[in-house]
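Whiteboard transcription, Tuesday session. T.W. wrote the structure tokens on the left side:
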């Protein structure tokens, strides 16, 4: 019997999976703030270190209407982690 593949955890602070985030995006979360509100990803005690994965995932979906197999993290840049 084949085991179900576990979904990658994107937000470790709040234990939010990639599957949960992708579903939220498909269901209409088209900004970072909407993802934060719907899933709690990106708003944990670490200050949102997973936002570097959330932003590229959202941008790819909005552009291609599909999700990338592998998420390429956005580079760290001051003052950009707070933007939608």
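and on the right, the sequence the group agreed on:
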């Amino acid at each position: 019997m084949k085991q179900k593949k576990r979904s990658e955890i994107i937000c470790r602070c709040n234990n939010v999976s990639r599957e949960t985030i992708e579903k939220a995006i498909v269901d209409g979360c088209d900004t970072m703030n909407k993802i934060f509100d719907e899933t709690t990803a990106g708003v944990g005690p670490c200050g949102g270190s997973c936002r570097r994965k959330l932003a590229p995932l959202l941008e790819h979906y909005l552009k291609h209407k599909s999700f990338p197999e592998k998420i390429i993290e956005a580079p760290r840049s001051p003052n950009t982690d707070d933007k939608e």
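Someone added at the bottom: The domain at 9-64 is CATH 1.10.10 (Arc Repressor Mutant, subunit A).
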